[in-house]
């Protein structure tokens, strides 16, 4: 019968791959020892991570931790948060210039295959929750807050050894313009350790995998644009890809330089000189607007080393938060090479 | 867990199951031993994820979120599961459907952009696109965006029903179970939905039988 339903059936889109990490995280949420927690919807910058197929890093961003809060974990439960900061001023310096210098400043740690890259960072991302009416699925409410963590990740340089991820959960903050919902405090600050099993598969973000990426700007640009991006504009997705390659990874020098040069060619990328990372370090922001938020990668103003990322509202209506407010902020604190990763006893992580 | 799986106290009448316990058996066991619920996850996580990703698209990990949330909701509501129903798929699809409706805006946006993608003669790919629009490709290339647009014009409830049948391959009975409506209602609603699609797609009216 050649009817409409058959037509719809034949137009069925391809299903997106379910990354092992996301699947494990979902399963663990059911059975894990940690208090059960609704995983917040759509995480601004980190959301992109979940798309990056099978990046081991993804699991970390999604998994909560438990233990004492580190320093600086002040709960700002005030409605509406702090006074908005000023809007980023777009500098005359071109993205090409800044990223070109960043490309020149790259160094390489040259890890051996049997070693681990360790990255420590501090992160703050938006958590979004939508509540639905049970009968008809109508949206009856939305709440938001900023969740914050300190992270340390160990990733096998050649991707053949199990890694580890430590997440310290810090006190949440109010999302600018929104009250702090009670869900934000459902889980107490604390520390969680996760095992990052290789399951016989070398991660795309392992040092040796990254080393296989193009060493020239043109090739790298093609790579950035080749990634699956659904219905997002290609330029926005390419910029997201840049962040994904830098976040909690160690890009080899040649690829890193190529990446910065390629990033400078993405339309819409501009420079702001007044950016700041989650650790309060001032730097140069190179970024692009997406969904009302300017997503910056922050570089050290003199050495052009990568400091972190941040998201600042530039379109109040689209972002549903006050102009100039900070809705995402991270700092990459240390990157080092280690001989071993901590053994994590994690009975809930298994391979497929 | 595979080799040392604890024996389940199945209700009498289920003894000879070649593939292990039924879903209802797992859910029943999970009332006392919550970890048994991961067996339900293992069976259907991939299938639910595929369905959700088809409806919401691959970006921003939304399918990951909604899948995780589906099983969390199911886990919390497992006490209310009707244990006389051996197959938990309809129940899970019902929960996933509600959560997808919560993402209605993104689903509609996705459908609209699919509709736009092949319809416009703008953008650098336009020329190539026009070339492709020859001969029999027309229907494949042009119908899809039109269909996406027609889907976007359905109500969320209509889309939910239609796509459970067309994309999740549920039977009418299973769809009825998922949506908690009588199977007759599924049939009559589908009839209406088909008529709507025909209208939106400018297809000829169905000849009156």
TrEMBL record, chain B:
Domain (RNA polymerase sigma-70 region) ranges: 41-109
Claim: ATP-binding is one of the keywords in the record: no
Protein's UniProt keywords contain Transcription regulation: yes
Name this protein carries in UniProt: RNA polymerase sigma factor
Classification via Pfam families: Sigma70_r2, Sigma70_r4_2
Segments forming domain RNA polymerase sigma factor 70 region 4 type: 146-197
Family as reported in the entry's similarity comment: Belongs to the sigma-70 factor family. ECF subfamily.
Region annotation Disordered: where it falls in the sequence: 1-25
InterPro entries named among the record's database cross-references: RNA_pol_sigma-70-like, RNA_pol_sigma-70_dom, RNA_pol_sigma70_r2, RNA_pol_sigma70_r4_t2, RNA_pol_sigma_r2, RNA_pol_sigma_r3/r4-like, WH-like_DNA-bd_sf
Coiled coil stretches, renumbered: none
Keywords: DNA-binding, Sigma factor, Transcription, Transcription regulation
């Amino acid at each position: 019968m050649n009817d409409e339903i058959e037509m719809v059936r034949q137009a069925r889109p391809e299903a997106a791959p379910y990354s092992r990490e996301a699947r494990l995280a979902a399963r663990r949420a059911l059975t894990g020892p940690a208090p059960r927690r609704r995983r917040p919807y759509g995480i601004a910058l980190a959301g992109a991570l979940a798309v990056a197929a099978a990046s081991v890093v993804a699991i970390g961003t999604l998994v909560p931790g438990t233990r004492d809060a580190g320093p600086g974990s002040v709960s700002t439960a005030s409605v509406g948060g702090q006074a908005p900061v000023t809007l980023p001023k777009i500098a005359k310096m071109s993205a090409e210039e800044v990223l070109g210098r960043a490309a020149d400043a790259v160094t390489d740690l040259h890890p051996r295959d049997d070693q681990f890259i360790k990255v420590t960072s501090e992160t703050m991302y938006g958590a979004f929750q939508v509540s639905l009416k049970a009968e008809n699925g109508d949206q009856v409410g939305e709440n938001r807050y900023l969740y914050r963590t300190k992270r340390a990740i160990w990733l096998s340089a050649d991707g053949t050894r199990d890694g580890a991820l430590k997440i310290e959960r810090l006190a949440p903050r109010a999302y600018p313009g929104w009250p702090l919902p009670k869900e934000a405090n459902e889980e107490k600050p604390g520390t969680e350790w996760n095992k990052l099993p290789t399951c016989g598969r070398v991660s795309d973000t392992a040092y040796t995998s990254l080393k296989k990426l193009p060493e020239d700007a043109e090739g790298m640009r093609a790579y950035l644009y080749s990634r699956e991006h659904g219905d997002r504009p290609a330029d926005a997705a390419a910029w997201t890809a840049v962040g994904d390659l830098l976040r909690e990874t160690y890009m080899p020098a040649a690829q890193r330089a190529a990446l910065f040069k390629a990033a400078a060619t993405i339309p819409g990328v501009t420079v702001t000189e007044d950016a700041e990372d989650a650790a309060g370090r001032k730097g140069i922001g190179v970024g692009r607007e997406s969904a009302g938020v300017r997503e910056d990668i922050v570089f050290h103003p003199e050495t052009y080393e990568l400091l972190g990322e941040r998201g600042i509202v530039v379109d109040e209506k689209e972002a549903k938060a006050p102009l100039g407010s900070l809705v995402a902020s991270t700092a990459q604190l240390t990157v080092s090479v280690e001989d071993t990763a901590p053994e994590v006893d994690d009975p809930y992580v298994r391979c497929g | 867990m595979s080799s040392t799986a604890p024996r389940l106290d199945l209700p009498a009448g289920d003894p000879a199951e070649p593939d292990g316990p039924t879903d209802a058996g797992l859910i029943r066991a999970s009332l006392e031993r919550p970890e048994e619920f991961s067996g339900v996850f293992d069976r259907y996580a991939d299938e639910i994820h595929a369905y959700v990703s088809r409806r919401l698209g691959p970006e921003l990990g939304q399918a990951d979120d909604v899948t995780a949330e589906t099983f969390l909701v199911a886990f919390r509501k497992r006490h209310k599961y009707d244990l006389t129903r051996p197959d938990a798929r309809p129940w899970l699809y019902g929960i996933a459907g509600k959560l997808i409706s919560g993402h209605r805006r993104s689903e509609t946006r996705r459908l609209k952009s699919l509709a736009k993608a092949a319809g416009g003669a703008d953008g650098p790919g336009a020329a190539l696109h026009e070339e492709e629009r020859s001969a029999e490709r027309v229907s494949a290339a042009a119908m899809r965006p039109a269909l996406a647009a027609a889907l976007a014009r359905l109500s969320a409830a209509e889309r939910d029903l239609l796509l459970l049948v067309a994309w999740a391959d549920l039977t009418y009975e299973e769809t009825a179970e998922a949506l908690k409506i009588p199977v007759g209602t599924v049939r009559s609603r589908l009839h209406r939905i088909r008529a709507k699609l025909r209208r939106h797609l400018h297809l000829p009216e169905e000849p009156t039988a």
